[in-house]
Amino acid sequence: VQLQASGGGLVQAGGSLRLSCAASGGIFSLNPLAWYRQAPGKQRELVATITSDGSANYADSVKGRFIISRDNAKNTLYLQIVTLKPEDTAVYYCNAPSLATLNFWGQGTLVTVSS
Q1: Residue 114 and residue 11 in contact, taking contact as beta carbons nearer than 8 Å
Q2: CA 62 to CA 47: how far, in whole Å?
Q3: Residue-level pLDDT, tens digit, the chain, 115 residues
Q4: Exposure of 20 by Cβ count < 10 A (0-12 exposed, 13-18 middle, 19+ buried)?
Q5: In angstroms, what CA-CA distances link 100 with 10, 63, 84, 112?
Q6: Residue 24: half-sphere exposure toward Cβ, Cα within 13 Å
Q7: Which residue from 27, 109, 110, 115 puts its CA 20 to 30 A from 35's CA?
Q8: Could you tell me if 44 and 95 are in contact, meaning their C-beta atoms sit under 8 angstroms apart?
Q9: For residues 112 and 52, what is the distance between their CA atoms, to the nearest angstrom?
Q10: Tell me, what's the pLDDT at 25?
Q11: 3-class secondary structure for the chain?
C-alpha cells in the first residue's frame, strides 16, 4: 500500500509548482481521489477531488489556481498550483476520501511560499 506525494519546495509568492503522488494500484482504483493540505497549526483540509472519469471539484479557496489531474496508466495523481500565496504554505497529501475517514495517510510534501 503506497501513497507518496512529492514535488514540494520553497517558492516565492506568485510562483507555481506541480505536485505528484504515486499511489499503489489498489488505492488508485478508489473513487474519487483527492489532495489535502495541512497548514501549520491548522486542521487538514480537502482542497481538490477528481473522479475516475476526470471530473474535478475544488475548495473555494483554491478555485482558479489549483488543477487536479491524474494519469491512470502511471497510477499517479497531480496537483498543479499557480499564483502561489503565502497562505498556501502547508504539507500537501494525496489520498482517497474513503481512506482518509479511516485515518490512513501516506507521506506528504511540504510547500513553503515566501512573500
Answers
A1: yes
A2: 7
A3: 689 999 999 999 999 999 999 998 899 899 999 999 999 999 999 999 999 999 999 999 999 999 999 999 999 999 999 999 999 999 999 999 999 999 999 999 999 999 9
A4: middle
A5: 27, 22, 25, 23
A6: 7
A7: 115
A8: no
A9: 30
A10: 82
A11: CCEEEECCEEEECCCCEEEEEEECHHHHCCCCEEEEEECCCCCCEEEEEECCCCCEEECCCCCCCEEEEEECCCCEEEEEECCCCHHHCEEEEEECHHHHCCCCCCECEEEEEEC
Q: In this structure, which amino acid lies at residue 9? A: G
What nine digits make up the cell of 2? 503506497
